[in-house]
Design goal:
By secondary structure, this protein is of the alpha+beta class. It folds into three domains: about 55 residues, Roll (Structural Genomics Hypothetical 15.5 Kd Protein In mrcA-pckA Intergenic Region, Chain A), CATH 3.10.290.10; about 90 residues, Alpha-Beta Plaits (2-Layer Sandwich); about 80 residues, Alpha-Beta Plaits. Helices cover about 20% and strands about 30% of the residues. Strands 7, 8, 9, 10, 13, 14, 15, 16 and 17 form a nine-stranded mixed β-sheet that branches. Strands 3-2-5-6 form a four-stranded antiparallel β-sheet. β8 and β9 form a beta hairpin. It is elongated and about 70 Å long. The two termini are about 25 Å apart. About 30% of the residues are buried. The chain binds uracil. Uracil binds next to α5.
């Protein structure tokens, strides 16, 4: 027996939180009866439907995509811009991105149809590290680097301690390359952290997600994760 929201999430229909919403909104039936109570236990043999569409279990898939810039971290866009799934024509499963990278940000983006796994990776309490390389306008002082490391105040809260390192700077052009490692995933977090201190991010790339780096992938390419890599990510997601 498994919780209803978990079963829906596992089927790749929605994240666990979205699945909970579907249930409380009365869009889910079990064996023909609407169920609005979260945590209802269901068996593999129960017939679950979301808005009348049967929930069929897909094999879970996990992939690492090198998102190019000028691509939306979504499976569809109402303005017809390029989306990540445009790059995955061979993938039949209903995968969705784990978190998002901005339109202008490139780098590691994980996709899956396993809502439970996605939830684990994204939740800030699990503290999976994400490493970014940012090119910024201006050269930050040691004091500013320290502020970023300690945490800066954004409109949705103070950022958790981060690892921040000045890799290089160009005095003539007044630009700097910074490595920044965060374990949270607030919306546009890196850009906003620099903005608070008055720096514009010119270029942003996610080099690493947990234990996964881009390796030899080219922008726009993807690869399936290996079982041991999925296991490693689970192990990194500690509370
Ligand atoms: N922080 C940002 O500002 N943008 C991203 O895409 C990811 C992290």
């Amino acid at each position: 027996m498994e919780r209803l929201q978990k079963m829906i999430a596992k089927a790749g229909i929605a994240s666990r939180r979205k699945a909970e919403q579907l249930i409380t909104d009365g869009q889910v039936t079990v064996n023909g009866r609407t169920v609005t109570e979260l945590g209802t236990k269901v068996a593999e043999t129960d017939k679950i439907e979301v808005n009348g569409v049967p929930v069929e279990k897909e094999e879970p898939v996990y992939l690492l995509f090198y998102k190019p810039t000028s691509v939306i971290s979504s499976v569809k866009d109402d303005r017809d811009r390029k989306v990540v799934t445009d790059y995955l024509p061979e993938i039949d499963e209903r995968v969705f991105p784990i978190g998002r990278l901005d339109y202008d940000t490139s780098g590691v983006l994980l996709l899956t149809n396993d809502g439970d796994f996605a939830n684990k990776m994204m939740h800030p309490s699990y503290k999976v590290e994400k490493e970014y390389i940012a090119k910024i306008k201006g050269i930050p002082s040691k004091e500013d680097i320290r502020k970023l490391q300690k945490g800066v105040k954004l409109e949705d809260g103070v950022t958790a301690p981060a690892k921040v390192k000045l890799l290089s700077s160009d005095k003539q052009k007044q630009t700097a390359i910074i490595q920044i490692i965060i374990a949270e995933g607030k919306n546009r977090q890196v850009r906003r952290m620099f903005a608070v201190l008055g720096y514009d991010v010119i270029k942003l790339k996610r080099e690493r997600y947990g234990s996964l780096t881009l390796g030899s992938l080219n922008a726009g390419d993807y690869r399936m994760l290996k079982p041991y890599e999925i296991k490693q990510l689970y192990q990194l997601a500690v509370t």
